[in-house]
């Protein structure tokens, strides 16, 4: 990779990490960008996952000064994510890569439909969710952990929607919690990728540091925005990604 190509890649990772704190789905931009620079697909996924650890930590730090992460079920959510991520990372060598655009589109369309039908959810603190909703939520968090360990593209976006719909979180709470879980998901997946020799450490550290500072900026911006504006931005990005990935799959 030439110095000019590296500069372009760093710029892409920096700006997507700023926006991605609120919207997720960084990997839907960053991994294809790495492929454009002729990086091997498996190595691109693994190195991107390595960089996401830095981004998730950077995106979590500003929220530690607030009360949005004070949840008694955070340890359980983390454990479910850890187990799911191990299974997901092991699927990288099994599931054909050309199925991913369709799978991602399905996730994004589901999130869009949910957001449109539940336009008031996530805007303010809701009543405590029902036991059934919580059980479904825990099951979905585990299933999403599998997907997140496998690829991560669209993982945080769907995770955010799940927290809003099933755990009655506001957008800010859901965004903050998803960043914490993504630390576990990315770390476990990366460890497995490292054991397979798939991570490009030199490139990963450069991109990781870039995403760390980008995510810190993004998290500070998120804390200054209202839940209504976070919902608007979230929905616009989700619709765009759904159309983009469906078009990619059709072609």
TrEMBL record:
Keywords: Cell membrane, Membrane, Transmembrane, Transmembrane helix, Transport
Segments passing through the bilayer: 6-24, 45-64, 76-95, 102-118, 138-168, 205-222, 229-247
Cellular compartments annotated: Cell membrane
Membrane-topology descriptor: Multi-pass membrane protein
InterPro entries: TM_pro_TauE-like, TSUP
One GO cellular component, as annotated: plasma membrane
Similarity annotation: Belongs to the 4-toluene sulfonate uptake permease (TSUP) (TC 2.A.102) family.
PANTHER family from the UniProt entry: MEMBRANE TRANSPORTER PROTEIN YFCA-RELATED, TRANSMEMBRANE PROTEIN YFCA
Name used for this protein in its record: Probable membrane transporter protein
Organism: Cyanobacterium stanieri (strain ATCC 29140 / PCC 7202)
């Amino acid at each position: 990779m030439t110095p000019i190509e590296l500069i372009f890649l760093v710029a892409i990772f920096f700006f997507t990490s700023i926006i991605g704190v609120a919207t997720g789905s960084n990997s839907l931009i960053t991994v294809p960008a790495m492929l454009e620079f002729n990086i091997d697909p498996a190595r691109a996924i693994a190195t991107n996952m390595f960089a996401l650890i830095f981004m998730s930590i950077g995106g979590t730090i500003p929220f530690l000064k607030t009360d949005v992460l004070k949840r008694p079920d955070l340890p359980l959510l983390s454990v479910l994510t850890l187990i799911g991520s191990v299974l997901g990372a092991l699927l990288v060598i099994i599931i054909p890569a050309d199925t991913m655009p369709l799978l991602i589109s399905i996730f994004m369309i589901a999130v869009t439909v949910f957001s449109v039908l539940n336009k008031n959810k996530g805007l303010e603190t809701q009543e405590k969710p029902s036991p059934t909703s919580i059980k479904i939520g825990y099951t979905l968090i585990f299933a999403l952990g599998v997907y997140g360990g496998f690829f991560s593209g669209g993982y945080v976006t769907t995770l955010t929607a799940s927290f809003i719909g099933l755990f009655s979180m506001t957008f800010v709470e859901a965004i903050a919690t998803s960043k914490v879980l993504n630390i576990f998901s990315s770390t476990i997946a990366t460890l497995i990728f490292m054991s397979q020799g798939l991570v490009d450490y030199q490139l990963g550290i450069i991109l990781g540091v870039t995403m760390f500072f980008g995510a810190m900026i993004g998290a500070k911006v998120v804390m200054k925005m209202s839940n209504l504006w976070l919902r608007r931005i979230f929905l616009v990005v989700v619709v765009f990604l759904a159309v983009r990935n469906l078009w990619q799959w059709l072609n």
